[in-house]
Design brief:
Layout: H1 17-32, H2 39-48, H3 70-86, H4 115-119, H5 137-148, E1 152-155, H6 162-173, H7 183-206, H8 220-234, E2 239-244, H9 249-255, H10 261-269, E3 283-284, E4 299-302, E5 308-311, H11 321-333, E6 334-335, E7 343-344, E8 349-356, H12 359-362, H13 365-371, E9 384-389, E10 392-393, E11 396-397, E12 418-422, H14 426-443, E13 447-452, H15 470-478, H16 482-492, H17 498-522, H18 535-539, H19 551-561, H20 572-579, H21 593-606, E14 611-615, E15 630-631, E16 638-639, E17 652-656, H22 662-674, E18 679-683, H23 694-701, H24 704-708, E19 715-719, H25 734-739, E20 747-750, H26 754-767, E21 776-780, H27 794-798, E22 805-807, E23 820-824, H28 826-836, E24 845-850, E25 852-854, H29 858-866, E26 873-881, H30 887-897, E27 902-908, H31 919-934
Parallel strand pairs: 2-5, 2-8, 8-9, 9-13, 12-13, 14-17, 14-18, 18-19, 19-21, 20-21, 23-24, 23-26, 26-27
Antiparallel strand pairs: 1-12, 3-4, 4-5, 6-7, 10-11, 15-16, 20-25, 22-24
Helix pairs in contact: 7-16, 7-17, 8-14, 10-17, 11-22, 21-26, 22-23
Length: 936
């Protein structure tokens, strides 16, 4: 039988003679008045354009003078489109068979047709290349229905690109999405299913009551990933990265990542798993000193073929791993060793994202991730998405879980094809995996497999689901497992006997029992796992790391940054502004914040460390301060000056990001994890925008090292200052970042000096990829970006290092007269400095700017305070309300070093909202704070 079926030629090939003439007449009318044409014809014209003669040389389907009813032909066309577009509604895709099938659009009567109508029509009206067993139109229609309403269902009519639709349709109708396993392959598939089920049963029986969030019900997820891995190896991929939540994770770790049974059983037994790590180095696992539950852990498997498999470490916050793993994927695809834009090869790596059916439509991070999937700074050439569809969320049935027909429906808004497959049909699952991989390779786009199964137990194995979902679970308790179903199928096909199927099950169980016995023997005297913070972590950053850059190097770089190609026309107004950056090198003016930043970036890539900065409007900068990317005012062509400095040894990119915070923070975190020598930076448009990414700060950036042993050097820039712009654009909620501080997990700074900003960026670049690597959180200025008191002289950048504490010039010059010491950071320090000026009349006080809030520089502050023996008051001054900002964090440190001095607070009272809603009220309150702080 031939499966060479192709129905993609123009439907006009089915018309000739009077019929074709009539269609052409109707098209002329359609062009002037669409409503005057029969609706079916109008739809035909909209889809296929003007009628054209079939020039293929084939004999016309309908001969000259044929009296075949044109309406019947149009009805057939309508039926064909219905089968392709709505066949999924009638498909056999639910293992429990608990959803009604909608066949209404596929009924002949719906289209005004009868079986005799179809019998009288040639099969070529339906199919161009007709299988041998198909004799007429009725046979052809039934053949198509078998393809579109079986255990695989397809949704692709929503794709805008006709090439993609045609490709998928060809694959389906050419018979490419059909299982053709050989006898030995079918036996291997059953053995795999036996291992998958056997692993879950062994744990369930051996470790009674232990949580594992089993895979049972969607066992074929492992089979699906197996097939994707096999295809990836054939395509010479270097790395496949998997992101998934906790359900089924242990089975994926064991069977797709080849984590030994002994390691898994040791973790369940509560003994060290490291003695059972493969000695050949094929598996890498990490663990932080504080650890995490086993179903959050990941692994890296190094394949003999040269392809690595990685399962991401992640928490139980469903779906938040998606941007992290796609960021890692982008990093795995890029070469950053050369100046300019990194060289990306999307065939080096790709991501598999496994979703839950309740989480996929429910969690906003999912559409965020789809939205950036084809944006230039974030695309990865397509991820393969899989919904491990249990058709239930915890105890919530699907009808309480979403407003869509399918869990997969949100993907369609991003032009992603969706393939539904019955998880009880393992051979079809393999076929769908092949199709999805081929689509990704062909079109470089995301693709989604909706693997529809069920959940054999409750949310965890000790839950009793009959309490909340009795109808579903009465069905599940009667439903055989996929291994039993497939084993019975092979028995019926006489490929195996029933005894051979049972023997396979016994053999798998024996293998696991042997592994567990090995664990018990080897771990009898195993030491307890320590949660103590490692010494290298306690040591923190190197002290006073030198970060200066020679004046000659800075001067030359500055000239190159302000030199453009002769045919490039910078916007004239901007050109004048940028040209002012020459003045500090000529003894005039100061290097402002953005200028210092660009010089730091240039020096870092000269040192061989790549830089990647992203965020909303970061190329220009929210406050029109940065201008990392210039645009020709006539052509719009882009120019990145940092691509044209001499001595550059690494790539530099600045990407304006989509309007999403959680997605892009996670992406940049992932990028840095994979490429730890790249300085990956995310800037919030305003600091409070970081609110939307709080889960990333809590679960990944602040704690990944302690939980999973994953170090990050991500940089977060959060514009922060109270300037009368209202509650939403004042505070970066710095108190939240300070609350997460512990064990030297990151650096938090509120900087008031462009020179200090230059040096802290340089320091961060130097620790990337080292034991000292940690994230850096900076509360950056807004109104102070061009403030002369923040600006730097050239010599401030040529030597020295980042200073955790700065002393206000003009204060403290007469130590014996100082009665009060003020502490402030960021803009508050500059507001005080503006009033103090040269210090005249302020002999009674000294001002300390705390530039680094964590780790808190207690030793340096203590040294300074000791110089003023007559000072009685230590006063913390801030612009944030008392229950926000830095006061609550700093107070315990001040208390330890006070040595009997009084500690007090000056700032706004405790508030529920960060700041006043109008400028006048803000100004009044800010003046009060300054006057009270400076009062003698």
């Amino acid at each position: 039988m031939s499966n060479n079926v192709d129905s993609h030629r123009s439907p006009y090939a089915n018309f000739s003679g009077p019929n074709l003439g009539y269609v052409m007449e109707m098209y002329d009318l359609f062009k002037t008045d669409q409503d005057a044409v029969d609706p079916d014809l109008a739809e035909l014209f909209r889809n296929f354009g003007a009628p054209q003669m079939d020039d293929s040389g084939q004999e016309a389907v309908l001969a000259q003078g044929s009296q075949t009813d044109l309406r019947k032909v149009l009805a057939v066309y309508s039926l064909l489109e219905a089968i392709r577009s709505y066949g999924h509604l009638a498909a056999d895709i639910y293992p429990l068979n608990d959803r009604p099938k909608d066949t209404s659009r596929l009924e002949l009567s719906y289209h005004g047709l009868t079986e005799s109508d179809l019998v009288g029509l040639p099969a070529t009206l339906f199919l161009k290349n007709v299988p041998a067993t198909v004799e007429n139109g009725l046979d052809a229609m039934n053949y198509l229905k078998s393809l579109y309403t079986g255990s695989i269902a397809y949704e692709f009519a929503h794709l805008i690109d006709e090439t993609e639709r045609t490709w998928i349709q060809s694959k389906i109708e050419n018979g490419d999405v059909q299982s053709n396993l050989q006898e030995d392959e079918k036996k291997q598939l059953l053995e795999r299913l036996t291992e998958i089920e056997g692993f879950e049963k062994f744990i369930h029986r051996t470790f009674v009551g232990a949580k594992r969030f089993s895979i049972e019900g969607v066992d074929t997820l492992v089979v699906l990933i197996d097939e994707l891995m096999r295809r990836s190896e054939e395509a010479k991929m270097e790395k496949v990265l998997i992101g998934m939540a906790h359900r089924g994770r242990l089975n994926v770790l064991t069977h797709n990542l080849n984590k030994p049974y002994e390691m898994m059983f040791a973790e369940f037994a509560g003994v060290p798993a490291s003695p059972f790590l493969p000695k050949d180095g094929s598996l890498e696992v990490t663990r932080g000193w504080f650890g995490d539950v086993k179903y959050h852990m990941g692994a890296l498997h190094k394949g003999k073929s040269g392809m690595n498999r990685f399962l991401a470490y992640n928490p139980s916050h469903l779906e938040v791993v998606n941007p992290v793993i796609t960021g890692q994927t982008r990093a795995a695809q890029e070469n950053t060793d050369s100046p300019g834009i990194p060289k990306q090869d999307t065939n080096k790596a790709y991501a598999i994202l496994v979703h839950g059916d309740a989480a996929f439509p429910g969690q906003g991070i999912v559409p965020e991730s789809f939205n950036y999937s084809r944006v230039r700074g974030f695309r990865t050439g397509g991820s393969v998405h899989v919904i491990a569809n249990n058709t239930i969320g915890f105890t919530t049935e699907y009808y309480d879980s979403r407003s869509t027909h399918y869990a997969s429906d949100p993907a369609k808004g991003f032009e992603v094809p969706v393939f539904h497959v019955n998880a009880d049909h393992p051979e079809e699952v393999l076929a769908v995996a092949k199709l999805a991989f081929e689509y990704r390779q062909q079109f470089g786009k995301d693709v989604l497999i909706d693997l529809i199964g069920y959940r054999r137990y409750g949310h965890n194995e000790m839950d009793e689901p009959l309490v909340t979902n009795p109808v579903m679970y009465n069905e599940i308790h009667k439903h055989p497992t996929v291994r039993q179903i497939y084993g019975q199928r092979l028995v019926e096909q006489k490929l195996m006997t029933d005894e051979e199927v049972k023997a396979m099950d016994r053999s798998v169980n024996a293998t696991m029992q042997e592994a567990y016995d090995h664990v018990k023997e080897e771990s009898a005297d195993a030491p307890q796992i320590s949660n103590a913070t490692p010494e290298v972590v306690q040591a923190g950053l190197p002290r006073d790391l030198e970060t200066g850059v020679s004046e000659d190097r800075l001067r030359k770089m500055n000239e190159e940054l302000l030199t453009y190609p002769t045919d490039f026309a910078v916007f004239s107004k901007l050109d004048k502004i940028l040209k002012r950056r020459q003045e500090p090198f000529n003894g005039k003016g100061k290097i402002d914040w953005a200028h210092a930043e660009q010089l730091a970036f240039g020096s870092i890539i000269q040192d061989g460390k790549p830089i990647r900065i992203s965020g909303q409007d970061i190329q220009r900068g929210t406050f029109a301060q940065r201008h990392l990317v210039l645009h020709d005012e006539k052509t719009g062509e882009e120019l990145v000056p940092l691509h044209h400095i001499s001595g550059s040894n690494a790539s530099f990119v600045a990407y304006n990001s989509p309007l999403t915070e959680a997605g892009i923070v996670g992406y940049e975190f992932g990028y840095n994890l994979e490429e730890d020598k790249t300085m990956s930076i995310w800037e919030a448009q305003y600091g409070d925008f970081s609110n939307m990414a709080q889960v990333m700060f809590d679960q990944f950036v602040s704690s990944s090292y302690a939980k999973w042993g994953q170090q990050s050097g991500l940089v977060l820039l959060l514009p922060h200052a109270f300037e009368g712009q209202g509650p939403e654009h004042s505070s970066s909620r710095i108190e939240r970042f300070l609350q997460l501080c512990g064990e030297n997990n990151w650096t938090v700074a509120n900087i008031s000096s462009a020179a200090n900003y230059f040096h802290v960026l340089r320091r961060q670049s130097k620790i990337l990829g080292s034991e000292a690597e940690r994230p850096l959180v900076i509360a950056t200025p807004k109104s102070l970006l061009r403030h002369p008191l923040v600006g730097a002289d050239v010599e401030d950048l040529t030597e020295g290092h980042f200073k955790t504490v700065l002393e206000q010039p003009g204060t403290g010059t007469k130590p014996e007269k100082v009665k009060k010491i003020l502490f402030a950071s960021g803009k508050m320090a500059i507001d005080l400095a503006e009033k103090i000026k040269d210090g005249e009349g302020f002999d009674y006080l000294h001002v300390i700017r705390v530039e680094q809030l964590y780790p808190f520089p207690s030793d340096k502050i203590k040294e300074i305070v000791a110089r003023f023996p007559k000072a009685k008051d230590l006063v913390w001054v801030q612009e944030e309300p008392k229950n926000m900002g830095t006061w609550s964090f700093a107070y315990p440190f001040l208390e330890k070093l006070a040595d009997g001095k009084d500690i007090s607070y000056i700032g706004r009272i405790k508030r529920s909202s960060p700041s006043e809603g109008d400028g006048a009220s803000h100004k009044k309150e800010q003046n009060r704070i300054i006057e009270e702080a400076l009062k003698k």
